[in-house]
């Protein structure tokens, strides 16, 4: 059997990390993989996570199974964090999943269960794993226009134009905030217009929110998801705790499915539990438990929010520094968009050749589509990057 396997294509970002490790230059800069790093290049464990882990070590008396949905306290805490009071929580089914990826996968499993012929729409571009999972599941895939390469902003007219082709039953995957890979986001008003169009066409929105708290603030970053939840009869929301709680390897995510009525919720929740059962049975608990401990304890929550805010403001400061430096070097406002982008990433509109040249000439490692991880920078490396961009990009 195994001898029939064909090699899978190597992950481009992991390959890039390998090249980075092999580069002997001391001035090299890693702007590749999507993990938050502090000014020293370290991915820290957040203070509240450490405190919750200590508390858990003292208090936890069993490692027996929780529930198929995961601990209901986690679902409740995530509904509050992501949805706020935009909908009656009695309308929301929720399951813990292995990371945000697990939540996206389970959302697509749910859509496939209802209609295997459904078409899933993703932005062009999107997080490559979206497309990869959709194709792996043999679902139909379509793309809607999103990013304007010349201005590095959202081409909203083109986006709406492509979504006019939506059919009833289609699924539209939207990034809730901090679009990956571009960093360019819809305004709240634009999200509202997209919601209206989705409702008019009888399609279903799936929001992937993996960076809540990394853009404009914890509440602000949830505003679009909440708007969609309040406007649409039904909504799927895949939320990740990997970045905002810094618990990447704990695999902590949550899929929320909002039904039109509370009467529908038991069937929706039962279906979500069923999907967990089929795919991995009980979801991982450790990270989910830390998250619900933090979100339900005033002191832990305040400390977590303060640290998350430091992280967010740190990245915003780097964005501003880079945009200012590029303004100075190029004597133009061409790169001002870097300060307006939000989240961990910016796609800067460099060609693959320019990306390669920056790697060869300056040891700057960004993804081939010119996505850079802002958190890979610090105040000392920003001028080096700015100089490389100014020298290389036409
Ligand atoms: N969605 C998007 C858009 C992402 O960028 C990521 C993380 N790279 C995820 C989902 C899921 O991340 P994880 O499975 O690590 O929680």
Feature tags:
alpha/beta, 14 helices, 13 strands, Aspartate Aminotransferase, domain 1, binds 4'-deoxy-4'-aminopyridoxal-5'-phosphate, 7-stranded mixed β-sheet, 394 residues, Aspartate Aminotransferase, domain 2
Q: How would you characterize the overall build of this protein?
A:
The protein is an alpha/beta fold and 394 residues long. The chain folds into two domains: 10-45 and 301-392, Aspartate Aminotransferase, domain 1; 65-296, Aspartate Aminotransferase, domain 2 (3-Layer(aba) Sandwich), CATH 3.40.640. Helix content is 46%, strand content 14%. The protein has helices at residues 12-22, 47-59, 72-83, 99-114, 128-136, 156-163, 188-201, 218-231, 265-279, 286-295, 298-330, 337-340, 352-362, 382-392, and strands at residues 29-30, 92-97, 119-124, 140-145, 147-148, 153-154, 171-175, 204-209, 235-240, 253-258, 345-347, 364-365, 371-373. The strands form four sheets. A seven-stranded mixed beta sheet has the order 2-10-9-8-7-3-4, sandwiched between helices. It has a two-stranded parallel ribbon with strand order 1-12. The protein has a two-stranded antiparallel sheet with strand order 5-6. Strand 8 (204-209), helix 8 and strand 9 (235-240) form a beta-alpha-beta unit. The longest helix has 33 residues, at 298-330. It is globular and about 60 Å long. The mean pLDDT is 97. The chain binds 4'-deoxy-4'-aminopyridoxal-5'-phosphate.
Give me the CATH fold name of the largest domain: Aspartate Aminotransferase, domain 2
Fraction of residues in β-strands: 5-15%
CATH domain class of the largest domain: Alpha Beta
The CATH homology group name of the largest domain: Type I PLP-dependent aspartate aminotransferase-like (Major domain)
Overall number of strands: 13
Largest sheet: 7 strands, mixed
Share in helix? 40-55%
User: Spatial order of the strands in the main sheet?
Assistant: 2-10-9-8-7-3-4
Radius of gyration of CA atoms, rounded to a whole number: 21 Å
Number of domains: 2
- Principal-axes geometry comes out as globular
User: Structural class of the secondary structure composition?
Assistant: alpha/beta
Task: Outline the low-pLDDT stretches.
Answer: none
Oligomer: single chain
Distinct compounds present: 4'-deoxy-4'-aminopyridoxal-5'-phosphate
The span between the termini is: 51 Å
Q: Helix and strand succession?
A: HEHHEHEHEEEHEHEHEEHHHHEHEEH
Name of the CATH architecture of the largest domain = 3-Layer(aba) Sandwich
């Amino acid at each position: 059997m195994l001898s029939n396997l064909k090699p899978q294509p190597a992950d481009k970002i992991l390959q890039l990390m390998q090249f980075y490790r092999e580069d002997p230059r001391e001035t090299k800069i890693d702007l590749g993989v999507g993990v938050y790093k502090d000014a020293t290049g370290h991915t820290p464990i957040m203070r509240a996570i450490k405190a919750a882990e200590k508390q858990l070590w003292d208090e936890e008396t069993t490692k027996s199974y929780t529930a198929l949905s995961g601990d209901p306290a986690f679902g409740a805490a995530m509904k509050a964090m992501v949805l706020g009071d935009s909908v009656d929580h009695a309308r929301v089914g929720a399951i813990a999943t292995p990371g945000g990826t697990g939540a996206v996968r389970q959302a697509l499993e749910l859509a496939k269960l209802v209609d295997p012929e459904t078409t899933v729409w993703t932005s062009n571009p999107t997080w490559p794993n979206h497309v990869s999972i959709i194709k792996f599941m043999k679902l139909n895939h379509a793309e809607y226009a999103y990013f304007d390469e010349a201005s590095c902003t959202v081409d909203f007219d083109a986006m709406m134009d492509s979504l006019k082709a939506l059919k009833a039953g289609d699924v539209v995957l939207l990034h809730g905030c901090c679009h990956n890979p571009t960093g360019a986001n819809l305004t709240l008003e634009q999200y509202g217009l997209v919601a209206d169009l989705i409702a008019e066409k009888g399609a279903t929105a799936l929001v992937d929110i993996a960076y809540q708290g990394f853009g404009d603030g914890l509440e602000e970053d949830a505003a679009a998801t909440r708007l969609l939840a309040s406007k649409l009869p039904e909504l799927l929301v895949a939320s990740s705790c990997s970045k905002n709680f810094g618990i990447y390897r704990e695999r902590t995510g949550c899929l929320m499915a909002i039904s039109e009525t509370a009467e529908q919720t038991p069937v929706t929740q039962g279906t979500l539990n069923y999907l967990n059962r089929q795919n991995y049975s009980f979801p991982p608990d450790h990270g989910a438990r830390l998250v619900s401990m933090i979100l339900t304890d005033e002191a832990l929550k305040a400390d977590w929010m303060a640290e998350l805010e430091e992280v967010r403001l740190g990245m915003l400061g780097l964005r501003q520094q880079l945009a200012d430096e590029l303004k100075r070097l190029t004597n133009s406002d061409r790169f001002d968009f870097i300060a307006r982008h939000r989240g961990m990433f910016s796609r800067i509109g460099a060609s693959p050749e320019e990306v390669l040249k920056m790697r060869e000439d300056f040891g700057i490692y960004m993804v081939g589509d010119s996505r850079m991880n802002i958190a890979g920078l610090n105040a000392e490396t920003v001028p080096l990057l700015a100089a490389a961009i100014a020298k290389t990009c036409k």
